Please model this.
Amino acid sequence: MGQGVSLQGVVILGIESSCDDTSAAVIKDGVLLSNVTASQAVHESYGGVVPELASRAHQQNIVPVVNEALKRAGVEREELSAIAFTRGPGLMGSLLVGVSFAKGMAASLGIPMIDVNHLQGHVLAHFIKEEGKQGENPSFPFLCLLVSGGNSQIIKVNAYNDMEIVGQTIDDAAGEAIDKAAKVMGLGYPGGPIIDKLARKGNPLAFQFSKPHISGYDYSFSGLKTSFLYNLRDWMKDDPDFIQHHLEDLAASYEKAIVDTLMNKLRLAAKDLKIRQVAVAGGVSANTGLRNAFHEYAEKYHWKIFIPPFGYTTDNAAMIAQAGYFKYLDKDFCPMEAPAYSRVTMKN
Model:
């Protein structure tokens, strides 16, 4: 394959297929030209993502999504410098669709491949540049709270290619805990946006749930989830319709318990590491309560905060293309035989 690197007109195609969103994006010279995502509504009736259905939908979506991303960017395939793709972590069947497509396209064009860690992509979403928009990037080192359906981590970001996990969940992720609470209350899937909307109308002090006491910067949400479940069971003995009678207050109180847990550990890490540049990333970073907490902590502890636009909180290819652009400049390419991986740490 041609591995020559030209820093004039660097055009990166990014492909993301780690879960149930098929996404493609194009970045040219560090500026985002397009970001196209096809979501899968098929999972809603199952109350969660069904891996087999997800991989089938990716197979249907990936060609039209990539074509649309190139079209919107005004870029021909022959102009691409490299293809960046999510190698992991994620659902293996979903990942394989994106990885296989990237390999085939890169081989046909004779251009390098760049593998991207999905979690690092979320962190690097803070560096996406859009045409005609001025934005400020975090400066190194900074702390990033990565919160999603599958991950809850505090990451010390020393450079784009040097990230250290200083704290993480030892069981459930914050997003997973929110989705499960929504399911228990019969609110549907995905539960995060529904809980968020209800919480805005409720009293966050209406109910108390036991919070875990874990040493250091690590998280635990399984106990909180169990406390919520047991409390509901007891309250419903006296009032079978308790959930419907207190839906908004339950959502607000549960959300507050999760946000407080996330922010207390983040504050501790920022204090101990003496870092005041603090960012948030991942799907749960779209949560209104968490965003409000970031602003409150910024004012109280003199943090400089970075909160991504809503479009870059969920899985998207713009963050993969951005990570790929940085790696391209360092000639950090990926061999054709590199496999996808479903589980990973920041070091992969």
